Amino acid sequence: MRLKSWHKKVLTKVIAASEIRRRSRVNSDLSSVASSSSVAGDEGLKGPQVVLENTYQLAPKDSQKFPTKKAEDIMKNVFLTHLLDSKFSSDTCKNLTTQITETVKTQVKAELGSNNRFKVVVLVMIGANFGQGARVASRCLWYPQYDRFAQYEYHNESLFAVGIVYGVYYE
User: Alpha helix (H) ranges present in 34-158?
Assistant: First the structure.
């Protein structure tokens, strides 16, 4: 089979690109084996990276249950510090929502500790309080024996705020 000259150029570019991808995969595999820790006294030697095996722990231990009461207390404290004498303004409430969400998430994760297996999801909604009714609903797919949520509501004369923290256990 005779190839035209432009076919040859395209074919050589494809082969070169696949060779570059193969080399980058080999280099990334080699770099993942290298460890960031060094041997005491010699900074140039590096040992293999420690690879942890799966634990296949499908349920949390009794000491690792999601602390719903502590999450509610955290939300109450954060809401009171940020919203105590606040008036509703769409610009300020947009920034307050992200600020409160990040604060609650970091405090709940700190309460759980570093050796936890919960994915923490925080939702905060702030709206104007004009005497109207508001209903907040959410749906989740979870395992009710292990997954938990905590919620807190705050009202003053100009705004309302609803916060929900989900603690979803993952293997």
Answer: 68-83, 90-112
Q: Are strands 159-169 and 118-128 parallel, antiparallel or unpaired?
A: antiparallel
Q: Kindly report the number of other CB atoms within 10 A of residue 165's CB atom.
A: 27
Q: 57: Cβ–Cβ under 8 A, 6 or more apart, which residues?
A: 117, 171
Mean pLDDT: which of 18-22, 42-46, 95-99, 111-115 is highest? 95-99
The two structure tokens encoding residue 152: 């807190």
Among 100, 83, 76, smallest CA distance to 159 is for 83
The string of pLDDT tens digits covering residues 139-171 is 888 888 889 999 999 999 999 999 999 999 887
User: What secondary structure letter does DSSP report for 52?
Assistant: P
CA–CA gap between residue 112 and residue 64 (Å, rounded): 8
- Note if the pTM is more than 0.70: no
Rounded to 5 degrees, what angle do the CA atoms 109, 115, 121 make? 35
138: number of CA atoms within 13 Å, CB side?
16
Q: Which 3 state secondary structure label does DSSP give 168?
A: strand
A 10 A CB-CB count for 144 gives 7
User: Are residues 159 and 86 in contact, defined by beta-carbon separation less than 8 angstroms?
Assistant: yes
Between CA 46 and CA 34 the distance in angstroms is 7
